[in-house]
Write a structure and sequence with these properties.
The chain is of the alpha+beta class and about 375 residues long. The chain contains 13 helices and eleven strands. About 20% of the residues are buried.
């Protein structure tokens, strides 16, 4: 049985051995007969080797092609879009599993009937799709939007990206397409736009709270120091004037104690509004402490500072808080201290300390004046 299997598997070698033995038996004492037999044996063995390798190579090639095709199908079935391969006669050779999610039809439903895909296209869109498919034979890729019928009877808008496929001689033989649900894409794009708008809004809010006082909407102390440093550097570099004003609300603690902190917050908010109304666009108002505001006045010298200081104090003290329900009307006073950039000013700390000392001196002078009046 084993000998028979060998003969069946290697027929050319078997023939070569048979011829060589016959040559050997006929001319056993003749070297030429023996040589001829060996040559025939070698030829038959070589022929067997070539035939075996060719058959084995074809088998491997078929197996490799099958593996590549299976891998292609597995990959295409993982993508959310629908991938298909079609001939120009309307027959679909392959369609990925995405078609079922898109239309409700299984891939085998699409492939078994010629022109099935075309029949699913909305009647109003069929002509433009057919013309575009025919133009693919010229070799140009294209995109077309149309409506396709789902199994439940509803239509869905799709975008079809068409790409012509050429053979080894350069002729267009078929084409592939990638179907994408346009409606889902529009929803996704809208969601992305909404998300981007929300992110932008949140970033704006974060940036706002990072630099602004939440109660008065004036700049906070930390950011005002950054601005002051920038203005200080610019003033030194360009030989410009720079002044500061520190404003304190008199008796704010007493007002809080008598009327409540809510009323004190209203006073702070009203003063901030009043200051912003009477300063220039280049000036900066910040809340520097619980009851203090710090105003940065770029390009304002000491002589101009006194006029601006009087104007701001007069404007703020004209404001008042009124509560009709409680029949309360609260007027308030403020005290200011000022400072200006001089040749001896070394840093923004000098400007702030000078304004603070000026404010303290003004408050002490007002206290003395009040005591003398009493």
């Amino acid at each position: 049985m084993e000998l028979r299997n060998l003969i069946v598997r290697y027929p050319y070698c078997s023939i070569g051995i048979l011829i060589a033995v016959n040559c050997f038996m006929v001319s056993i004492f003749k070297l030429n007969g023996l040589t001829f037999g060996l040559v025939v044996l070698a030829f038959c063995c070589t022929l067997q080797f070539l035939v075996y390798n060719e058959g084995h190579g074809k088998s491997n090639e078929k197996e490799a092609n099958k593996i590549s095709e299976d891998l292609f199908h597995r990959v295409m079935n993982t993508v959310p879009e629908t991938v298909y391969i079609s001939l120009f006669d309307g027959s679909v050779k392959y369609v990925s599993n995405g078609i079922e999610k898109l239309t409700g039809y299984k891939p085998e439903d699409i492939c078994k009937t010629r022109n099935f895909m075309l029949q699913l296209i909305h009647p109003d869109d069929q002509e433009k799709v057919s013309k575009l498919v025919q133009r693919l034979q010229g070799g140009d890729a294209s995109k077309v939007d149309y409506r396709i019928l789902k199994k439940d009877g509803a239509y869905v808008w799709v975008s079809d990206f068409l790409n012509p496929i050429r053979n080894e001689w350069g002729n267009v033989t078929h084409y592939n397409g990638i179907l994408m649900n346009s409606e889902e894409k529009k929803i996704t794009d809208k969601n992305v736009q909404s998300l981007n708008a929300r992110v932008h809004q949140l970033n704006t809010m974060v940036n706002h709270h990072a630099v602004r006082d939440s109660l008065t909407n004036a700049y906070n102390k930390r950011y005002s120091l950054v601005i002051l440093q920038n203005e200080f550097n610019r003033a030194l570099a360009q030989n410009k004037a720079l002044s500061c004003l520190m404003m304190d609300i008199d008796q704010l603690e007493a007002i809080n104690s008598q009327y409540g902190y809510f009323m004190g917050d209203l006073i702070l908010t009203e003063i901030s509004k009043c200051l912003h109304k009477h300063i220039q666009s280049s000036d900066v108002v910040s809340r520097f402490g619980d009851d203090e505001f710090f105003i940065i006045l770029p390009e304002i010298d000491a002589g101009e500072l006194d006029r601006i200081s009087d104007l701001l104090v007069d404007s703020v003290e004209k404001c008042f808080i009124k509560d009709d329900e409680k029949n309360i009307s609260i007027h308030f006073k403020v005290t200011v201290g000022t400072s200006s950039l001089t040749k001896t000013t070394k840093s923004i700390t000098d400007l702030i300390e000078l304004a603070s000392r000026s404010l303290y001196a003004a408050k002490m002078a007002r206290k003395v004046h009040r005591n003398e009046s009493v």
